[in-house]
Amino acid sequence: MIKGTDRQRGRAGAAIRGTSRHVGPVLKVEDLSLYFRASVGVVRAVEGVSFELQRGRSLTIVGESGCGKTSLAKAILRLLPRNIHTYKGRVFLNGTDLMTLSDERFRQDIRWKEMSLVSQAAMNSLNPVLKVGYQVAEPLLINHNMEKKAAFERAREVFKAVGIPAAFLDRYAFELSGGMRQRAIIAMALITNPSLVILDEPTSALDVLTQANIMNALKKIKREFDLSFILITHDIATSSELADEVLCMYAGQLVEHSKAERFYREPLHPYAQKLMASVPTLHTEKKPEFIAGQPPSLLNPPSGCRFALRCHRRFERCEEDPPLFQHGDETVKCWLYEKG
Amino acid sequence: MENRAPLSVISRVDETDSRTLLSMQDVRVWFELKKWGFLKAGFVRAVDGVSFKLDQGQALTIVGESGSGKTTLLRMILGLCQLTEGQIEFAGRNLDGQKSKDLAWLRSQVGFVQQDPYGALASFMDVHRILIEPLIINRVRREEHEQRIREALEEVRLIPVDDFLTKYPHMLSGGQQQRLVIARALLLRPRLIVADEPVSMLDASVRVEILEMMRGIQKNHDLSVIYITHDLSSVRYFSERVFVMYAAKLVEKADVREIVQNPLHPYTQALLAAIPDPDAKNAAELKAVPPGEPPSLINPPNGCRFHPRCPHKIEGRCDVDEPPEFEPGPGHLVECWLYDPEAGAPPAQTTMTDRAQAQAERQTAELQDRDN
Amino acid sequence: MKRQLRELRRYPSAMLGLAIVAVFVFVSIYTVIALPYSEAIRLWRAGPGVWEDYPRRAAPVWTDWFTSKKLPRTIIVTLEDAGTLTVQPIGDGMNRVEIVLPFQYAYDGFPKELSLFTQKSMEAYSGQLSVYWRMPDGQMLTLQENRAMRATHSYRISQDMDLRTQLGGTPHQGLFARDRTLPLAEWQPLHGNYELVVQGELPEQAEILSAKLVVFGQVHGPAGTDHLRRDLMVALLWGTPIGLLFGVLAAIGAQASTFVLAGIGTWFGGKLDAIFHRITEVNMILPGLAILIIVGHFYSRSIWVMLGLVIALNVFSASMKTYRAMFLQLREAPYIEAAQAYGAGNFRIIFRYLLPRILPTLLPQFVIIVPSFVFLEASLAVLGLGDPTLPTWGKVIYDARVNDALLMRDFHWIVQPSALLMLIGLGFALVGFALDRVFNPRLRTL
Predict the structure, then answer these.
(1) Do B80 and C340 touch (CB under 8 A)?
(2) Across the interface, do B280 and A260 touch by the CB < 8 Å criterion?
(3) CA atoms within 13 Å, Cβ hemisphere of A52
(4) What is the per-residue burial (b if ≥16 Cβ within 10 Å, else e) of B206-216?
(5) Digit-coded pLDDT (tens) for C101-136
(6) 0.80 exceeded by pTM
(7) Does B332 fall in a domain?
């Protein structure tokens, strides 16, 4: 890395001021697929996912375990494991086709500059021998080549945004509670002022009150910094906290993408309907239902609609895998909506 | 162990006229902390003055966050750890919480369902072996083994039984694994089952199935169940009664409906306000959350343990004396000075949630202002 | 676990390793059956007469694949096969006796030694015999003239100094040389039919019981011989079961004990755990080999004592700490807590819940450590502290070293046992590391 060239300094400056405005969706995913090679065969973890996300909006991806939502996040961020079999499709970030970039280019320019990730239980992966403030400032020091003073100043700003007192910059990870550590991780993801932050189960290991606190912080940040979020979770109730739009996944495929108001009230896809029906509610009387059966194996997925076996509304057309239909503003992968 | 009749008919062996199964009186479990291996450095007061009664056939949920002491309470009920102080009575028998023999007896009376279904099963044992272990250890008669195993598996609907007997845990789905754990808990025909977050590691669509099944088993066999969870929204599908635990104490006890509609303790109110129902409106609103963190169990605050975070703290009272248990409504108990009948009329409950709600609305408005 | 063992088939290195180990195991079994223990000990003790027909320090027969010359094998001629005995009474109670022992010699080199063994029925010295040597070109040389013979007589022709002076070179070379007038370095053996003739007069009562001419070859047997004329195959064959047994017993004995003790110590924690730790730390510093040497020197070199001592010294080894780390993690596992909840006692939990969980990951360890114990036993023997009665590979190397094998260019003596040691190490290592990859998937590279 060449230090101090105009280009580098220019980039760093842009990072602090905020990325230049790009008109159009901040993220556009086209037919993204990810298959793994396992000793027993090929696992089709993500199959043909397409969606768009506008600037300043947040998208929640919901689904149960094994539906491919974490793999999708990894696919977007190109954090691929070694046993990859297929990785195809296109991902556009602020208009740039990410698939055309080399791995090194991706690492330098995109990952943690334009896009960052808060992964599951990341709070446990804070380096125990470094001070928290230093760790949070690290992306700036290393990737952006900022001076120490400026980087720490930024770290202080970001801590304030997530709700950690500035005094904690000098503490070590073990001196922070679980909630604080998770906030520190979120701060680390925000410090380079990316356009998009992906959060994978950010609060699943935390208590209810801490969770509410962190969600509050995220909501504030979203407004303040005009960020786009992708929140991935299996907890349907929490998912509504940070959702302008909802993307529901089942067996590696996208089955519904609708606005939050529609999804939480009256989802379109039968699986989404059943999923919503299975969530117990505190403030309303409701008898939750369950879905009998299990999701299909991703090694040998059925050739037709993957939910057909458990679907209460299946019919003959379902023997064939449905494409994604447009239903107004929404997208549904179900033959019931063929007419649009 | 008395030779009990088959699971479907429980004969009452003890002659107490009340149906009280478990009674705890002022129980404390304190762990000694040692500095450098032998110097005394204080106590972790994991359970600090807990009292309650549980009837046979009744289901109870204990709600608490991590650090509230609920895990220790659970282990003590299971007979896995000793009491420091207090009395425990089970099935009419007075137990000395410090004698290992009594604890061992308690262990054989209480079944345990754990949070992590895969972790709770020995991965190198097949289903048959997993189920036969408790029977061997508790010296159940050989002839009864096969019958009990079959009954237990049929009870949890892991059928056909013969198909499952030779399977290993990793061959079962999450839901099936948890059913196996439940079956194992039923083998010794306990009177009480303790379940620690039994469905939190299962998928949403499976949870209800398991909960309903447990409810059915409970009703059929007149079992008592104690659930521990932090997920208040599913409580009403578990049990009729709820206890809220905070910092080693049970701060509120009530029927589920009461607690949801009329939470009295400020902590309970905070919990309820913080739990979202899936609703798109949530994204635009901020939640009212009390500041701070749960207190350390080594050095709890003076007086009421919630007072540093409580929006309704009474100066001079809440930070000095620990509140005793009050009963502002029938069956509804609270440990909070706000409900002291001698201190005058308790503030109307509506004011409290209103106040919290108002604060949340204010913050939301601030945010939306920034938008425009 | 069976599933994982089947996975082993995917690794060619493991298959090779298994093949090697299988060969050694097969050889062990074969050896124990074909050459019983008592017999092997008897042979190895090299009592009188046991190895008299074997050359000293002969190389293995197959070494002449590597040379252009055809090296001489051992030739034995006895009365029973090609030899002839004629007895003629000549009166006065005496017999005229003639023994002819013929053979063919077609090798490119000279024999190592030459000896004549005779046996007659009368003990006392009686009668006189002369020994003659007929060469293919008709030359007749006199080896001995009118000598008395003992009942059992070994005439070491090679060491006959008079003969040596007479021939101008060592007898076993001179008696075969084509042209003795050439300088010694240029002597070539003469191919053709040779005869050893014994003639003389003996009393009637003295019967010739046997006569044997041994032309000792330079190469002998599949493995050659050592300084005591012992066929090295005995030691190489018997070294296999002994080495294997020592290695496996020591590995299992030490590792299994460590494993169980670590489990018990970690489970009970507190003082017991601390005691185990202190013992381990002290034991790690103790110089194991030095202790073995001292005990071997002053007390006993019996292999059972050594085995017991090796196991004892290795129980509280560094592995204890590794196992402890694994057990510590497992101690908090939910299924252990569940077992406690349904009333399992401490030892049941240790042996039926804790140990079996870790056992598969430790199996590779057991396998990998076997060669170190095999080498340990060999090292002790090489240092001269091996069991003096047992034929082991280490003993062979020791003998070779003490008898200047390399100096005398008897390479087979050192190379063979060393190669076997390396091979057995290789076999176990290949299997062990492949097992490691199967049981510890994190080490796998997909």
Answers:
(1) yes
(2) yes
(3) 9
(4) bbbbbbebbee
(5) 899 888 888 888 888 888 887 766 667 788 888 888
(6) no
(7) yes
Q: Do C445 and A39 touch (CB under 8 A)?
A: no
Contacts of B107 in chain C (CB under 8 A): 340-343
- Per-residue confidence (pLDDT) for residue A340, from 0 to 100: 46
How far apart CA C310 and CA B92 sit, in angstroms, is 59
The DSSP output letter for B11 is P
Structural domain count, chain B? 1
Task: Tell me, yes or no, if C227 comes closer than 8 A to chain B by beta carbon.
Answer: no
CA pair distance B355, B266, nearest whole angstrom: 11
C293 secondary structure, DSSP code: H
Q: How many CB atoms lie within 10 A of CB B97?
A: 21
Residue of C237, C366, C392 whose CA lies nearest to C306: C392
Pick the residue from chain A with its C-alpha nearest to B175. A294
**Closest A-chain CA to B213:** A290
CA distance A207 to chain C (A): 21
Q: Which range marks the domain in which residue B283 is found?
A: 263-372
**Is B159's Cβ below 8 Å from some Cβ in A?**
no
Q: How far apart are CA A274 and CA A280, in angstroms?
A: 12
C356 touches chain B (CB under 8 A): yes
A124-128, C323-327, C413-417: least confidently modelled range = A124-128
Q: How close A248 gets to chain B, by Cα (Å)? A: 14
Cβ A216–B236 below 8 Å, yes or no?
Answer: no
| pLDDT tens digits, A128-150 | 888 888 888 888 888 777 788 88
User: What domains can you pick out in chain A, each with its CATH number?
Assistant: 24-114+194-337 (3.40.50.300)
Amino acid sitting at position A291: I
Say what the pLDDT of residue C180 is.
83
For the cut 60, the answer to whether the pLDDT of residue A12 exceeds it is no
Cα four-point dihedral sign C204, C209, C211, C216: negative
Task: Measure the N-to-C terminal CA separation of chain C; round to a whole number of Å.
Answer: 20
> Which residue among A215, A223, A282 places its CB closest to the CB of B287?
A215
Q: Which 3-state string (H, E, C) describes chain A?
A: CCCCCHHHHHHHHHHHHCCCCCCCCCEEEEEEEEEEEECCEEEEEEEEEEEEECCCCEEEEECCCCCCHHHHHHHHHCCCCCCEEEEEEEEEECCEEHHHCCHHHHHHHHECCCEEEECCCHHHHCCCCCEHHHHHHHHHHHHHCCCHHHHHHHHHHHHHHHCCCHHHHHCEHHHCCHHHHHHHHHHHHHCCCCCEEEEECCCCCCCHHHHHHHHHHHHHHHHHHCCEEEEEECCHHHHHHHCCEEEEEECCEEEEEEEHHHHHHCCCCHHHHHHHHCCCCCCCCCCCCCCCCCCCCCCCCCCCCCCHHHCCCCCHHHHCCCCCEEECCEEECCHHHCCC
> Is residue A305 within 8 Å of residue A255, measured between CB atoms?
no
The kind and range of the H/E element at C315 are: helix C303-315
Domain presence at residue B246:
no
Let me know if residue B288 belongs to a domain.
yes
Mutation for testing the A interface, residue in B172, B176, B282 having most A CBs under 10 Å: B282
Choose the mutation target among C331, C335, C340, C358 for the interface with B, i.e. most B CBs under 10 Å.
C335
Residue B317 lies in a domain: yes
Whether the CB of B369 is below 8 Å from some CB of chain A: the reply is no
